Amino acid sequence: MPASGCPALRSSTPDSGAISSPIRGGAGEDIGVICALSGTVVVMKACYVTSLDAAEWIDNCAVGDLPDPALAPGACRIRVTRSSLNHHDIWTLRGVSSQPIVPPQILGCDAVGIIEGYGEGASTPYPVGTRVIVYSGRSCGKCDACRFGTPERCRNVGMLSEQPHQGAFAELLDVPTSALIALPDSVSDDMAACLPTAYLTAYRMLFERASVHPGMSVLVQGATGGVASAAILLAKRAGATVVATSRTEEGRQFARELGADAAAPAAKGELPSALAGVGCSDGVDVVIETVGEATWEYSLRSVRPGGTVVVAGATTGGNPPSRLNRVFWFQLAIHGSTGGTPQDLARLVQLVAHGGFAPRIDTVVPLSDIRSGFERLGAGAQHGKIVVAIGAS
Ligand SMILES: [Zn+2]
């Protein structure tokens, strides 16, 4: 039966404590919960890793019923309405992860939904029924970075969909109450689902790692990706001159529609003239790099002496020629970046709420057809974010 059919879950409140009772398998492991009123096993629809053995990465996942895990003390239960696809999900299906991948590992880094209840002893920052976005990052709370107030630099940093945290491609998701941010009415679930990974990553790359401010110049590689399209929108919003690259004319036109001042192929010798056309013949102040091997050399050639390249992904591979001579001779700064802070996510929500920009959505796919979204993302055919519809928004 679908989890939504359980009246105990629907009527739970912060004061009701645990909202269901765990049942245990023969080996003692939790295999599901018994709905307090109906007495039936509660399951939920989810997209999860089934194995890492398939010939094609996309065949390593499935959409089906999983037992609804018992709500842990201190946690908040979200009924997920929207999520979105990220390359992180594809890397997980390829078996690349900072943590062991243990099937059935639920995928999905971005979560938007409705607060359905709180576990025993949890703080209750918002009433049940509040529409929220979930900060995806998880820090250990023990390393020096965590102890000294910079948990985004945690030595053991993780995120939703990485062990021991389940992902957001599921009808139900349990998260720490500190991860909740209430959504204003003017921010739709679809828009919010774009923010926690791709837009937050772009925000940190531009404004924290590269200190972009009005009048600076920014090159965004691979314009059609989720982080890249976010970077174009945010850099223009901040008053920067933006040049974008894409393999296809369609992608370059997309970049111009987002507001890029110029667009060119990265690898066909046309980029220098595009840069010169916007007054950047000596190179740009900042390069936003998430493509990796296919564009790295052009990133180093396109940044001005003393400029900054920020790297937050390597979708075409992580081992390009390093060109160290160019790095030291032109005194380049190369910064890595991952995710962002909860405060940054809250600022992004406010920026969208007050009309600062609208996240660019490529398509919305239902959870049952998530495979088509994966195929589109894997082929690099998307223009913006692919949102996953999981529950009624
Ligand atoms: Zn830590």
Structural class: alpha/beta
What is bound: which ligands?
zinc ion
**Proportion of helical residues:** 10-25%
Total strands: the figure is 20
**CATH architecture grouping of the largest domain:** Alpha-Beta Complex
Annotated CATH topology of the largest domain: Quinone Oxidoreductase, Chain A, domain 1
In DSSP terms, counting alpha (H) and pi (I) runs of 4 or more, how many helices? Answer: 12
- What is the CATH superfamily classification of the largest domain? Medium-chain alcohol dehydrogenases, catalytic domain
Radius of gyration: 22 Å
Poorly predicted runs of 5 or more residues: 1-38
How many individual domains? 2
Main sheet? 7 strands, mixed
> Given this structure, which CATH class of the largest domain is correct?
Alpha Beta
